[in-house]
Amino acid sequence: MKTSVSAPVVGYYGQFSRDQKVFGEKGDFITSPELTQLFGEMIGVWVFHELANTGHKGSWQLVELGPGRAQLMNDVLNALAKFNDNDVSVHLVEMSDALIDEQENFLCIYNSENTKGTPHVRKNKTRTGVNIYWYKSIDDIPDGFTVFIANEFLDALPVHQFKKTGDLWKEVYVNLTKEGDLRFMTSKGENLHTKGLIPAAIRNENSRLTWECSPESGTVVNQIVDRITTFGGFSLLVDYGHDGSRNTHSFRAYKNHEQVDPLSNPGVVDLTADVDFGYLTTLVEDRALVYGPIEQRVFLTQLGIEHRLRRLLQICKNREEQEQLISEHIFQILLNPFILESYNMLIGDMGTKFKAWALFPKTLKFILDQRGGPVGFLSKEKAEKKANDE
Ligand code: SAH
């Protein structure tokens, strides 16, 4: 899975080119930020609001993991520009050079070259005037107060699959047939991975016959927590996933929006697995405050996405005001004729399948408890009270 998804030459994202579309209507899948600017704007507002509530003053780093075509960062930056923040720098973690080119093209005025001998592989300025850096690994990001965001990043990281036969847990492998085709097979018995990765709680669940986990996602989440607990900051990850209750395997593949055999065309089909936020929570809850997973629908609604939609629709009707807004560079208004349809997808089907999950350092516990949690993750009572107050 790792090679097929992320190897520089043969991997799915490494092969990205404008002709062979990956994202969007003509590609293999569509993501929330690709669907509508509303998603990125809401994430931008959330980041700024939570930042203000930490009381942090001075410089801060906004990190996005796996930015794809950079639509999310573009919309977040447009939202942040409204707050006149001069202390932010942007840091993108991306392993595909082809996508780094695409992101730079979209976010910056000029193209540049990869640098050598620096922790970052590229440096530039965004159209909104913010310093922007690219890295191949989270480890290379400089120390400092950091806010992490990612959408549909963890689901691309490799998973291990396990199956129970009798009392024994076996690992599912990918092997070759005599003809040289890929096929699934299982280990003869328990191995290092079944013994090292499957938690006691899963083994003790009698009815459970399958389990899937991504230790690589665990490493990423641990790296985030190490940083936010050492230098300050917080994180918001949004992904297709569940709270640990899914008891079937989810590793699958897409091509042209259709589900296909994941072993059929490695490097050409999009491979994905649902994120097990329950498992990830067990890895960090001793060191971090964990909020969610909560449905994207609930998260975006608490943030007031409906108000923003209404405003956009109104602007679409009123050309004069629209031109004024554009000239003031408040938000770049996309005259998307499908804005209502996009909104319905974001809040409807995608709104229940996608989950938001946030991490904060435990030092912020008192403040966050007083607030009833970060916005988007408020308890039902607090959310209702907030809506009534407004
Ligand atoms: N966030 C984007 C696209 C998600 S697709 C959106 O919402 O539209 C997954 C992204 O993660 C791609 O940019 C891919 O190149 C990147 N990616 C996948 N595996 C990675 C890895 N191991 N390290 C860094 N980036 C990775």
Automatic annotation (TrEMBL):
The keyword Methyltransferase applies. GO terms for biological process: methylation; mitochondrial respiratory chain complex I assembly. One of its GO terms (cellular component) is mitochondrion. It comes from the Eukaryota. It is found in: Mitochondrion. It catalyses: L-arginyl-[protein] + 2 S-adenosyl-L-methionine = N(omega),N(omega)'-dimethyl-L-arginyl-[protein] + 2 S-adenosyl-L-homocysteine + 2 H(+). Its EC number is 2.1.1.320. InterPro entries: NDUFAF7 (IPR003788), NDUFAF7_sf (IPR038375), SAM-dependent_MTases_sf (IPR029063). Keywords: Methyltransferase, Mitochondrion, Transferase. GO terms for molecular function: protein-arginine omega-N symmetric methyltransferase activity. It is an enzyme of class 2 (transferase). Its main location: mitochondrion. Pfam families: Methyltransf_28 (PF02636). Belongs to the NDUFAF7 family. Arginine methyltransferase involved in the assembly or stability of mitochondrial NADH:ubiquinone oxidoreductase complex (complex I). This is Protein arginine methyltransferase NDUFAF7. It comes from Caenorhabditis briggsae. The lineage of its organism: Eukaryota, Metazoa, Ecdysozoa, Nematoda, Chromadorea.
